[in-house]
Structures are given as structure tokens and as C-alpha cells.
Design goal:
This protein is of the alpha+beta class. Helices cover about 50% and strands about 10% of the residues. The strands form 3 sheets. Strands 1, 2, 3, 4, 6 and 7 form a 6-stranded antiparallel beta sheet that branches.
Length: about 550
């Protein structure tokens, strides 16, 4: 698939035939390296070795996962009114936030009004605790999907949540480990490295000398989450059709999805297993661009997780990386390949990428943190997801819709030709910069109404994938603003053709020699003319800013 970025690059003579890898290969680690690199993408300096069969906390991991998932139907069951007083507290805090905004900044309108309600909702979420803070964190990753002020405000929920008092943190650690703190740790920093909705993390040193990070669950968080999910399940049916942002998600289905996500975060044994599973996936893919911290062989319980400590550059420390000689464009490339490859080939990927969950090592590799949320797809969904991405690069609209149907985004009996016709998907793409704000709103409303009519919804795996893509979109803005997007897509397509071509062709049901990269659909999604040969991220941002300013001018007028 060698061609200029602006054309519709044809496949190489070998099409999707496999070729030699350029990123290393799976197998035994090099001499003098830790032996567990043969089973996972870990650091080269091992504080201990990962030996899964000897990790006592793994012995009942399948039963733990089953118990957690079996709770979801009861937590999300429709009910007349949730028991307890939690509903009163929720209504009081959210009602007060909206009421004070309504009698105050709302009258000023525009950005000031949005900033005020965003701040009040963030404060209310912090008062209400883990479940609502977690919702805020999801919003904080939705740049382009939610108002800018709301996203900015809820970013404070990522790692600026008020920490728990040290005495309570110490009590959780000692209770979970069954030993006094000084019987395990030589030192634990009382000030957390970060405090989030479910837990906070502390730097520490074991009595055996290893530098570690200790993740400690907030006291009573499980009880609060369960109570809040019941309140949400009661409230969700009243919101159907009343919240445009959540329309395609279907509020009751969204609550069920959210319940599945957050309940798995409440047992750190599942998170530790997720770390091993993702590390194994990267190893099997020969992908050494990522590093996963090792969970401790013994010090993992439902509420405490001790793991290897890694050091590097914050993901937004572009100057520090450049000064250290790190290729920031390659960091973006590693991020895209690793994220997509795990999902496409193994059906597993980190489900909550954001700046607090990853950093860059001095050698340019990306360290991934926080594995409470993971995207997992069974074989049927993985193949549907694979078809979705491949047909997107071929501008195969019907193929994309069929893949979305098989992922669960559309009902099984959906008339795909009717969807294409109703949404004008086979016509020329619209350029949003050439539409008035009223025309753009009308177009969006038309699409949403049509999709709702077909019973469209947002499956968990697709939601997590889109959320991660939004984050990576923002990462390009800071790490590689002059990256040629079309050229990069061509390079990614070449990589997957060279690396997994035969497997992809077989699973998608495609003649490997007939594959042809067609960027017209991609260009249409960016709102640019099919003849455009090059588009940097900086230029794309300028287009977005033009659209945003036109909407702001509409508000003022």
C-alpha cells in the first residue's frame, strides 16, 4: 500500500499478505533480561518476576469475575423507588447545583453560564462520591462530545479528587493485608500521588527494598456505588428521549453499561489480572512499545494493589521528552498501533486512556497504568470490530454498517440499505465549515432521529474505543501537531498489512490481493474535499475552531 497520502493508495503487490515484522517478535527475552519478558511486556528492571501460577490472589479469579458480573442485573433492575436515603442526598445536591445556576449565571448566557453550571455539577459530583465522580471522569474524556467547559471542569476529577485521611488509608491497608503497615513497608508516603473516584495511590518502599506504588480503595466505596447504581436505574427510564447527549446510548442501557464497568473496578484482583492479560497480549503481538507494571505476587487483595513503580515523563511534558531526545511522533504512533492492535487481533484493550493513566519512559516506550476498565470482546465481537476498521479504510459504507450491527450498535434485522439511503451515506460528504450553525444543528438532529428510529445504541466496547480515540486525538495535538493524518493512516494500514495481513484477510473474508486503501470516507469524516492530499492535525484543529467560533457567534447574536 505505497502511495501518496492524498490519493487512494492501492495495496502493495502482496496486498494483505504477511511480511517480516519490524517491531520485534514474541519469544524468549534476550540474555540478562528478566525471564518474565517471555510472557508479558514488562520493564527490563524487574523488582520481582511474574509467575502467574504462583500468585495466590489469582486462584479464584474466574469465580470473582463471575460473582461481580452476576450482581449487575439486580443493581440495574427497574424499581418503583430505591430503598434508603441515598436518593434524597442525590436530589438535594444535584437540585441545588442546577437551582443556583438557574437563578444566577444562567441569565448571563454563553460561556460564562456553561462554566458556572459545569463547576457546580463537578462540586456536586465530588460531594456525592465515587459513582458520580466516575461519571465526571468519563465526561472529561469526551472532548468534542460535551461542552468544552464541562470537559475542562471534570478533568479535575481525574486526579484532584480530595484524598481520604491517612488514618483511614492505613486502616484499609492493614485490614486487607492482615499485618501492621511496618511489617510490609519500610515507608509509605502519606500524600498520595493521585486521588481518583475509586481509589488513591501512594508511593512506597517495601521492607525488602523495592520501590512500589500502593493503590488503596476508598472506604465504603462498594456500598456507595451499589446504592447509586440503584438510584440511577430508577431514574434512567424517566430520561429516555429527554437527554439528547445520551439518546443513542439509551439511558437504561447506559446505566447497565456503567454498572458493568464500575463494579469490576471494585475488586483489585480483577485489575491485577487485567494487567497480566494486557501485558501478555502485547508480548504475543511482539509489541514492545508498551510497558505494564508488574503486580506484586502476594500483595494484591480486593481493596489493595501493590505494583512495580515506573518513572517517566507526563504525557503532556512535550518539552521534557524533546530535551531527552524522545521522538514524540513515534510516541503517538506507538499509542495508536498498540491500542488498535490489541483490540483487532486479541479482543482486549485498555479502556480508559487519559493523561493520568500513562506516561513516557526515557527510552520512548509508553507505560500504561490503571487497568480497572478494560475492553474485552468475545470472538464474534472481535471479528465484527476488525471488519469495522478494515471496511472503514476501504470506504465500504455497507460493510461498516454490517460490522456495527454485529457489534450490537444496530438491531440484527436492520435494513442496511435503508439506513444508507435515509442518512445519505452514499452521497458526497458535507463540509461543516460551509454550513450555517442552524443547518448543522438540523443535520445532526436528522441523523440522531433516524438512528433512534432504527434502534441504534452504543455498545460498551465501542464506547470505550471511541473515548480512547478522543484522547489520542488530543494527544496528537500536543505531541505531533504537524503530523500528516492521511499519511499516518496509510502507514498504519501498511503496518497491519505487513504484520497481520493473512489473519485479517481470512477473518474478514477478504481476498488479500484485492485490498485497496481508500481514504475518501476518512476525508469525508474530517469534512475535507476528496482531492485533499495532505492534512496536518494543526490544520484540522483550525477547521474545528472555525466551526466552534461560528456556533459561539450564533449564541451571542
Amino acid at each position: 500500500m505505497t502511495a501518496s497520502p492524498g490519493s487512494a493508495p492501492r495495496s502493495s503487490p502482496d496486498g494483505l499478505r504477511n511480511r517480516a515484522r519490524s517491531t520485534g517478535s514474541a519469544g524468549a527475552p534476550p540474555p540478562n533480561f528478566p525471564s518474565d519478558l517471555a510472557i508479558g511486556s514488562f520493564s527490563n528492571d524487574a523488582p520481582w518476576l511474574v509467575e502467574p501460577d504462583r500468585m495466590s490472589w489469582r486462584r479464584s479469579i474466574n469465580a470473582v469475575r463471575w460473582v461481580v458480573r452476576s450482581q449487575i442485573p439486580e443493581l440495574t433492575r427497574p424499581r418503583r423507588l430505591p430503598s434508603g436515603t441515598r436518593i434524597v442526598r442525590v436530589v438535594r445536591h444535584l437540585g441545588l447545583a442546577v437551582g443556583l445556576w438557574a437563578v444566577g449565571a444562567r441569565r448571563q448566557g454563553g460561556a460564562r453560564s456553561r462554566a458556572d453550571i459545569s463547576r457546580r455539577l463537578r462540586i456536586a459530583a465530588e460531594h456525592l462520591g465515587p459513582t458520580y465522580i466516575k461519571l465526571g471522569q468519563i465526561i472529561s474524556s469526551g472532548e468534542g462530545l460535551f461542552p468544552e467547559e464541562l470537559v475542562t471542569e471534570f478533568k479535575r476529577c481525574r486526579d484532584q479528587v480530595p484524598p481520604e485521611p491517612w488514618d483511614q488509608v492505613r486502616h484499609v491497608i492493614e485490614t486487607e493485608l492482615g499485618r501492621p503497615l511496618d511489617a510490609v513497608f519500610a515507608h509509605v508516603d502519606r500524600t498520595p500521588l493521585a486521588a481518583a473516584s475509586i481509589a488513591q495511590v501512594h508511593a512506597a518502599t517495601l521492607i525488602t527494598g523495592e520501590r512500589v506504588v500502593v493503590k488503596v480503595q476508598r472506604p465504603s466505596v462498594a456500598r456507595l456505588v451499589h446504592a447509586d447504581l440503584k438510584v440511577m436505574a430508577w431514574l434512567a427510564p424517566f430520561l429516555v428521549g429527554r437527554i439528547p447527549v445520551a439518546a443513542l446510548a439509551n439511558p437504561p442501557a447506559l446505566v447497565e453499561l456503567f454498572a458493568e464497568t464500575i463494579t469490576e473496578e471494585l475488586d483489585f484482583r480483577l485489575e491485577a489480572q487485567n494487567m497480566l492479560d494486557v501485558a501478555r497480549s502485547f508480548h504475543d503481538l511482539g509489541q514492545r512499545g508498551y510497558v505494564i507494571p508488574r503486580p506484586h505476587p502476594e500483595l494484591v487483595t480486593p481493596r489493595v494493589l501493590v505494583m512495580e513503580r515506573l518513572d517517566g515523563f507526563a504525557f503532556d511534558d512535550v518539552a521534557g521528552m524533546v530535551d531527552a531526545g524522545v521522538d514524540t511522533e513515534e510516541v503517538v504512533r506507538i499509542g495508536m498501533i498498540g491500542f488498535m492492535e490489541g483490540a483487532m487481533i486479541h479482543g482486549i484493550f485498555h479502556g480508559d486512556l487519559h493523561g493520568g493513566n500513562l506516561f513516557v519512559l526515557p527510552d520512548g516506550r509508553v507505560a500504561l497504568l490503571d487497568f480497572g476498565i478494560i475492553g474485552r470482546m468475545d470472538e464474534t465481537k472481535r471479528r465484527a470490530f476488525l471488519r469495522l476498521l478494515i471496511t472503514a479504510t476501504m470506504n465500504d459504507v455497507k460493510g461498516q454498517l454490517a460490522a456495527l450491527r454485529d457489534l450490537g450498535a444496530l438491531p440484527p434485522d436492520t435494513d442496511l440499505d435503508a439506513v444508507i439511503r435515509d442518512l445519505n451515506l452514499d452521497g458526497p460528504p458535507l463540509d461543516p465549515t460551509q454550513l450555517t450553525p442552524d443547518e448543522m444543528i438540523a443535520e445532526i438532529q436528522k441523523v440522531v432521529k433516524a438512528l433512534l428510529g432504527y434502534g441504534a445504541r452504543l455498545p460498551k466496547e465501542l464506547m470505550l474505543f471511541v473515548k480512547n480515540m478522543v484522547f489520542l486525538d488530543g494527544a496528537i495535538a500536543s505531541l505531533a501537531p504537524d503530523l500528516d493524518l492521511f499519511g499516518e493512516i496509510a502507514k498504519l494500514s501498511m503496518y497491519f498489512a505487513e504484520t497481520h495481513g493473512e489473519q485479517i484477510a481470512e477473518e474478514v473474508g477478504l481476498d488479500p490481493d484485492a485490498y485497496e486503501l481508500d481514504l475518501r470516507g476518512v476525508k469525508g469524516s474530517f469534512g475535507v474535499d476528496p482531492g485533499t492530499e495532505r492534512l496536518t492535525y494543526r490544520e484540522l484543529q483550525e477547521r474545528r475552531e472555525l466551526i466552534r467560533s461560528r456556533f459561539q457567534n450564533r449564541e451571542v447574536s
